[in-house]
Amino acid sequence: MESYGRIVDNEKYINILKVLRDNGGPYNWIRETKNFAKNTSEFHTTDIGRNKAIKEVLSSYSVKNTIREVALKNNQDVENVTQDANDILYNMAQNFNLTVVRIVGYTLMKIFDVVLDGVYINNKEMEILKELIKENPIVFMPTHKSYLDFLLLSIVCYDQNITLPCIAAGMDFQNSAFIGETLRLCGAFFLKRSFGNDKLYWSIFSEYVKVQIRYPDRPMEYFVEGTRSRTQKSLFPKYGLLQMVIEPFLKNNVYDIQIVPVSINYDRVMEEILYGYELLGFPKPKESTSSLFEARSILKERYGNVYITFGNPISTRNFFGTRLDRLNISSSPNQCTNFNNDVRKQIRELAHVIIKKHNENSISTIFPIISFSILQIWNENISNEKLSIKYNDLLKRVIMYWELFKKLKINTYHQHATINLEVRYQISLHKNLFSNIEIDGYDSFEITLSEFNIDKEVQRKNLIPHNSVVHIVLQNYANQLAHHFVDMGIIGTIFCIDNSTDNDNVCILGYEEVYQKYVRYKELLRYEFVYVPGEEKNDFQKALKRLEMIRICSINKNIIINDITQLKLITKIIESFIHGFINVTKIIKQISGQCLTDKELLTICQLHIGKEVISKTYMYTQNVSADFIKNVINSLKHQHIIVKKDNIKNEMFINSNGINELIKFFKSSKYFKKYVLEEIIYESNTFIVSKI
């Protein structure tokens, strides 16, 4: 049976910060002579530069045609619209400057040398990339869990003598003129978060991206998830930019494109507390991009290690193979980018495969197990707001799950000789999440969760539960492990494993019945746990094999559960997501008949969950997270249970038949008997709606 997740070993990974420290520090590092690997293929024109790239975009048939259409529609002169296009491009385009890169690189390495213990990379993959880059356009697609992601990737490329990538960056970086222009000189080009109906902008940006692929001066880099994952899980991918990247290949403008999935994992995320507040609904600071780097407090903290894993490159030529008729696509007019449904489906599949590779190449430390264990113990003592957790109790729980991980061949990386030492180290590294702990020199001690300040009036008005920030932060770390367990956890959810109903009869179900329910749960959780559409059967069979491997189940025509206790442990890892989904569904059922916008629906759900947590009728404080609720709402939209009303306000209404059918489906699992779906409290909606 294959193992899951990467581990750091000396044969495959090097610590580039250790190499830097052993060789005289950042100053010597930045002064080294560089010989960057770059594209030397005779099939590609390189060294196009900023001005030539802009000229190439403006002279393209598609952009010229769009300029004429916009001028005609808005009754403007073509010259004026052309000037607008030129202004857009100059604000968008990168302007790489190696001198600035050296200055920024030196500064960043000075900071990383202070706040990080190590930056680990699988450097042998870099040697493969150096050869690939000579022949084909390269596109890095990293995970996106921190603002540091693209900075670290550029640092690694510089360190390993790979031409620095041109990076698709959000325009919020331009809130600070200094940061924005510095990033531009380091190779960033900027895009709006949303193009809306701006046809001119869309045409210009699309063509600019395609120019970067057709004339591969340097690799390109962008985040397939579109934005940072504030929950430390993979986000549902965005397809638009990927289509732009792939189009030159589909139209035979390039022979191949090599897509490199890059998994970036952090011992401790710099923005962890900021994410906690944002997920409660507090607005993101306008200049959080610059303030993150300028904050002096960061230099006083330690953030452990960063692990950067370059996955095997995905060749678009091999991936699409003969599945697409490229000859037919390339014969269509240049301005035509409206691919048919089959082409779009294949591009979407590629996006999901990239996310899958991100997860397969992830490196997990033991802190996600610690975080999950703390939340479990807290939920078991929900009535005690001032709960102190004995270290030895926590350690036993962590060891129990760590041993389960080993049985399932799920790799966790730890630096110390014993689990006890590793747990102590990780708690010390994340000491800001805990109150007044004294670790060194004590066999045992007690752990109390930190309280992060929230304005009392805001907390009262918005029904924000006590300790909600730290609960969300801990859940975010626990999320790093969830993708390993989701398929097994869904199978566990389908079986009756509630203590009050344990018996032999409920532990046997027909194979096909379990599979059909599995597919339904998987589809419901599609935004929470991203998977490759069409691979459900394979994922299901893999999960069963893993459960068979550790003798939790056996299979003939039926699926028989042999070890309820072990299956419970696995199912607990995704339990909060399933319960949370049901709870949000219940809340939405209560407001059937009302027409609400997305924002109003999110607010109502967040208020209701907060009220339940405060009144101790619901234990999962972390489910007040806006990201979690949005995922449920998006899933219900996908199921056509929440339906957009055809009006200007973008209001939604609830499909009563659809939501009743979904609740009936949940009731079919006896696992939720204790969750008493029938007992929906029809309190006055006036209470909740008045809070919006």
Automatic annotation (TrEMBL):
GO CC annotations on file: endomembrane system; mitochondrial membrane; peroxisomal membrane
Limits of the Phospholipid/glycerol acyltransferase domain: 138-267
GO process terms (BP): ether lipid biosynthetic process; fatty acid metabolic process; phospholipid biosynthetic process; triglyceride biosynthetic process
InterPro entries for the chain: GPAT/DHAPAT, GPAT/DHAPAT_C, GPAT/DHAPAT_LPLAT, Plipid/glycerol_acylTrfase
Family: Belongs to the GPAT/DAPAT family.
Species annotation: Parastrongyloides trichosuri (Possum-specific nematode worm)
Pfam families reported in the protein's UniProt record: Acyltransferase (PF01553), GPAT_C (PF19277)
Subcellular location: Endomembrane system
Membrane topology: Peripheral membrane protein
Protein name: PlsC domain-containing protein
Keywords: Acyltransferase, Membrane, Transferase
CDD domains: LPLAT_DHAPAT-like
Chief localisation class: membrane
Domain of life assignment: Eukaryota
GO MF: glycerol-3-phosphate O-acyltransferase activity; glycerone-phosphate O-acyltransferase activity
